[in-house]
């Protein structure tokens, strides 16, 4: 039996280096293996949780789809789709909601962070918190369980969501007395795990510290790299690679020998300016050919649309029979 690998990206902004190194690159590599059945998608229902600008969601979806394709995803080998084209996902979300402990969702990092922020500001703990944010982990569990994925390649920030998906699956299996769902396993690219952003914190749309993958071309990439925060050590003074996001990013884009040489150069006093130029050139070597493909793809949205519609058809062929089985198991009329 093939291993089913599944992952998604929320369509709220422009794809950044963290999305690429943490999720897209390993997922595309996995999809080339003959023993893998890959399901990759644009999480546009998730996008609604954070974004109420329709044009932005649409644009981001196109850009993220083009990014996957430019990064080498072959839609003939992979089931590549838009979350919102699969009605079985919100349907499963409800079935899972009804077996999910509220206490589990109370512990979700994103919800807790929003509550903590309110408390710190002396406001009502739930001020501005939507039920959508609260339910985020259940929707994500449905994304994964609707296809009974075995493995989910993600960055470290998604580990808790995967643990919750396993909890929810286990609970459903237990209540309804059968292994309807396999328990999905998280796959973390250790070399990347959490790619730091410009300020050293996790690279994230929410922190506004991202390095764009393709947007703005080589120039924007170079400008962003030059803005990576470094300490005040001067050229000639030894640098500590382990505390430098510059080195961490470099390592995520280079082989062992190249990383070791860069580490030595930093320890021997390479200036930050030069180090940034080295990093930029390393990134550009990997990204430039993809950027050219990306620019062509975003200019042809109709082609991408056709690919996604075919992907939705393939995805539903898997999800529909499972949902019919689940409906029957919980006592609803089986459809599909
Ligand atoms: P999202 O859109 O925030 O991020 C997409 C993927 O990129 C990874 N990532 C990173 N990896 C390393 N370093 C970083 N700085 C970094 N920033 C982002 C994320 O870990 C993720 O793998 N909830 C998900 C989308 C989603 C999903 C799913 C993923 C919805 N349903 C089902 C897997 C399976 C999210 O918002 O990711």
Strand fraction: 5-15%
**Helix-strand makeup class:** mainly alpha
The CATH level-2 architecture of the largest domain is identified as 3-Layer(aba) Sandwich
Fraction of helical residues: 55-70%
The number of distinct structural domains comes to: 2
Function: Catalyzes the attachment of tryptophan to tRNA(Trp).
Enzyme class: ligase
Protein name: Tryptophan--tRNA ligase
Organism: Fulvimonas soli
Notes on the protein architecture:
With 336 residues, this protein is mainly alpha-helical. It folds into two domains: 3-195 and 301-330, HUPs (Rossmann fold, 3-Layer(aba) Sandwich); 214-295, Orthogonal Bundle (Tyrosyl-Transfer RNA Synthetase), CATH 1.10.240.10. It is 55% helix and 8% strand. The chain contains 13 helices and five strands. The protein has helices at 17-31, 44-50, 54-70, 88-97, 102-106, 109-120, 131-145, 159-176, 217-226, 245-252, 256-267, 272-298, 301-330, and strands at residues 3-10, 36-43, 79-82, 151-153, 185-187. The strands form two sheets. It has a three-stranded parallel β-sheet. The chain has a two-stranded parallel ribbon with strand order 4-5. Strand 1, helix 1 (17-31) and strand 2 form a beta-alpha-beta unit. Helix 3 (54-70) packs across helix 12, helix 4 (88-97) packs parallel to helix 13 and helix 10 packs across helix 12. The longest helix has 30 residues, at 301-330. The protein is globular. The mean pLDDT is 96. Bound molecules: tryptophanyl-5'AMP. The site of tryptophanyl-5'AMP has 25 residues, from strand 1, helix 1 and helix 7.
